[in-house]
Amino acid sequence: MSRTRLIRAALGIASLSFFFLGVVSLAMLLKGRESRSDAFAPTPQHVPVVLLNKTVTVKSTEPWQSSGVRVTSDQTVRVEASGKVCWSFNNPDGSGCVGPEGSWYSAGQLSDKSGFPSLDARCGSLIARVGGTIYFIGNATSFSPREEGVVEFMINDRLQWLWDNKGTFRVSVRVEK
Quick one: which of 167, 24, 50 has its CA closest to 99? Predict the structure, then answer.
């Protein structure tokens, strides 16, 4: 075998070796990328489905007012509110007019707690009820109802003193699943 043939054979084997080494390296690199991309891939998250959007006006002079929105315990209720109501002219803070967040004190802090739908919520604030459970709403909140029922709203004032109130809250209700 001549020296030239020997060199060509050696170069051919070397070329073939480099080719296979390149293919194997590329395969390992791609496999490594796949496993790395899987490790950093975002986990699937629940994207809520909006079932209903509705806006209602809540009068400060009326007790529980139906929104007409029926919910179940597997849903999320998102509520946003705006507006101003005057719920008491004998208010300890002197104003008596508040936004959906209500006054700075809760009904439970008053010496006479009688007649308030919620002792935990701030006086004059927006509250909601589904079934027998009352929720503090304020400017905005979300909750999962404990039971099935219609979402009702009112301001947290003594039921016997609603007649002297003034103003309304504009309330947006969004139901998601």
Answer: 167
Q: How far apart are CA 107 and CA 139, in angstroms?
A: 18
Would you kindly state where each structural domain of the chain is located, as residue ranges?
Answer: 1-45, 50-176
Burial 27-64 (b: 16+ CB within 10 A, else e): eeeeeeeeeeeeeeeeeeeeeeeeebeeebebbbbeee
pTM over 0.85? The answer is no
The CATH number of domain 50-176 is 2.60.120.430: yes
Token digits of residue 150: 């219609």
166 forms beta bridges with 86
Q: What is the pLDDT of residues 77-127, one digit of tens each?
A: 999 999 999 987 665 555 679 999 999 999 999 998 899 999 999 999 999
Tokens describing residue 49: 């489905």
